[in-house]
Amino acid sequence: MPDIIQLLPDSVANQIAAGEVVQRPASAVKELVENAIDAGADTIRVIVKDAGKTLIQVVDNGKGMSAMDARMCFERHATSKIKKSEDLFHILTKGFRGEALASIAAIAQVELKTRQSQDELGTQVEIEGSKFKSSEPISCPAGTSFSIKNLFFNVPARRYFLKSDGIELKHIMDEVQRVALTHPDIEFSLHHNGAELFSFVKTNLRQRIVHVLGARYNEKLVPVSEETDIVGVSGFIGKPDASRKTRGEQFFFVNNRFIKNAYLHHAVMSAYEQILPDGHFPLYLIYLDIDPDLIDINIHPTKTEIKFQDERAIYAILHAAIKRALGKNNITPSLDFSQDPSIAITTPLTHQEIKVPEIKVNPDYNPFGESSKRESLAQRWGGERAGNSKGWAELLEISKMVSPQEEHVATLSGTSDLFELEEGIQPIQLHRKYIFFAEENGLILVDQQRAHRRVLFERYLLLMERGKGSVQQLLFPEEIELSPADIHLIKEMEGDIQSLGFEISWPSATSLEIRGVPTEANISDVGGWIESFLELFKNEAHSSTVGLREKTAWAMASGTSIRYGQMLTTPEMQELLERLSQCKQPQVIPSGKPVYLRISLNELAQQFK
Q1: What CATH architecture does domain 394-600 belong to?
Q2: Distance between CA 128 and CA 110 in Å, rounded?
Q3: Side-chain half-sphere CA neighbours of 82 within 13 A
Q4: Of the candidates 60, 68, 4, 63, the residue with the CA atom closest to the CA atom of residue 32
Q5: DSSP classification of residue 519
Q6: Predicted confidence (pLDDT) per residue in 512-560, tens digit
Q7: Going along 450-554, which residue ranges are E strands?
């Protein structure tokens, strides 16, 4: 039997490695920017075209490379950072494996220009698909310029799975901003298709955070500082009013390297217990300074995961540091446990007259009368039910505000007989979360929040297609400060959200002004709503493969729909079921999760065997 095991060619091996290291254009940007930092640059420019699919160029003023190094840097596992295995546990640089440039060169057309400051001429190297095209002297500025053209040109399957330009550009912006947050002493700029998206000047850490996240956070940052023999903790956390209902600005950095760690995130969340409302997440930028011997950063190709030698100790230190920061800034409630509660009685002043409490009784009150029963029910349910019913009615109007022609189209394209309630059968709300009712062959269980979101989602898509959203002019236009990444997102979807009824202008590069909002959306806090909408959109962008318009509509629907825990009357439930029946796809939400379940009588019978 002949031998079947053989060595892979270097070009194939590099393409396999590229699948781990370079997952998307943002991965290449991250590797090149980190190399620039390792080269001692204090000015780094990132230039991309078509969200990095056509061009990625990173220009720095670092120390540059010699002619031999310019050629060697593209060899697999060629690095200046480590020489023996022990060096893996003393790493303080960004890159060290020597895989990034070889991987990038295997799946793109790369041009490198580099010059050391003491040399008169630099070196230009061109490489395509791991094959060297040329290497020659060239006149160029001191430092290094990497140009990556046509990423994944020879791996079309990888290029096919890339997201839209807006999403890929958002990933690039995230990577550059994460690096910028760890190096406030370096100047960064990002340009896309000839336009500057942001530019960060050299400054201190707090100002860099404000430049990246937006000016609205300047007054909401609380400093954190704790020094121990195990780890040093520094950075900033957000005040409770800076929290959001979705995970947004939450960063961990270990030795100036961005990481993700669910265990340490739990330490932060537990420190905020009883401070934040349920379902809210705090803002934090935590910098951990730890001996490289106590961590292993070589467990993941993208180096975003780190293994700690004593993770439990770091958890406890981080938790204590955040609790102390919150206490020092009077954010956590203070209790004096040394005082005897039996003596904590307010003493009246000598000139004050002590009044005997009066008891008022209505002699005509009849607890068994019909009027008092109604009053009792009104007092018990009135506030909550009245408020919820009002909000529900306003939200329900969104799905009703269609012309007769549109209503006819919706009915024909939908399944108007999806839920046919038998005469005398009424829907019932279960735990203020589900709606269920009996049908001929079993029962149907509907998720009330998903159902309403499905209704609103299709309504918003219709408005975007026809541009018929009605506008409610604000008495005083509201200017909102946002991060450059969020500004870019709003501009990407500007046409669609204007179709819904928003009126937007751009007073500066980091702010937008809202002059009008959709009449049917019932938005009171415009600034807070825009921030929540952006967070919902970001989450949807990562979890779904639908287009930009669908993501915008779904984020709008998620931000304006009814919530779990909201009590509905029987007419409201019937109206919701009717509107859901008229949807084009009432069975699922865009992510594929079901809106309702059908349980047959046979399935019920099986449960009683």
Answers
A1: 2-Layer Sandwich (3.30)
A2: 6
A3: 18
A4: 60
A5: G
A6: 888 888 776 667 677 777 777 777 776 655 444 456 677 778 877 887 7
A7: 471-481, 503-508, 511-518
CA distance linking residue 477 with residue 179, whole number of Å = 35
Residue 92 pLDDT? 61
What is the pTM for the complete model shown? 0.69
The answer to whether 20 and 112 are in contact (CB under 8 A) is no
Quote the CA–CA distance of 326 and 44 in Å, as a whole number: 36
The total of other beta-carbon atoms located within 10 Å of residue 497's CB is: 22
Can you tell me the distance from the alpha carbon of 248 to that of 254, in angstroms, rounded to the nearest whole number?
19
CATH of domain 10-202: 3.30.565.10
Question: What 3 state SS string does 262-310 have?
Answer: HHHHHHHHHHCCCCCCCCCECCEEEEEEECHHHEECCCCCCCCCCEECC
Residues above pLDDT 70, as percent of the chain? 75
Q: Taking CA 263 as the corner, what is the angle to CA 261 and CA 266, rounded to the nearest 5 degrees?
A: 110
HSE toward the beta carbon, residue 220, CA cutoff 13 A = 19
Mean pLDDT throughout 342-355?
Answer: 50
Phi-psi group of 169: left, alpha or beta (phi > 0 → left; psi -120 to 50 → alpha; rest → beta): alpha
Burial status of residue 557 (CB atoms within 10 A of its CB: 0-12, 13-18, 19 or more): buried
Pairing of strands 43-49, 250-254: unpaired
Residue-wise pLDDT tens digits, 34-81: 989 988 999 999 999 999 999 999 999 999 999 998 888 888 777 766
At 389, list the tokens: 């019913």
Please give the class, per CATH, of domain 207-328: alpha beta
Q: Cβ(422)–Cβ(575) under 8 Å?
A: no
Strand order in the sheet with 284-290: 221-227, 231-238, 284-290, 250-254, 257-259
pLDDT at residue 190 tops 90: yes
Instruction: Give the Cα separation of 289 and 77 in Å (integer).
Output: 28
| Residue located via tokens 């905020």 | 272
Domain ranges in the chain?
A: 10-202, 207-328, 394-600
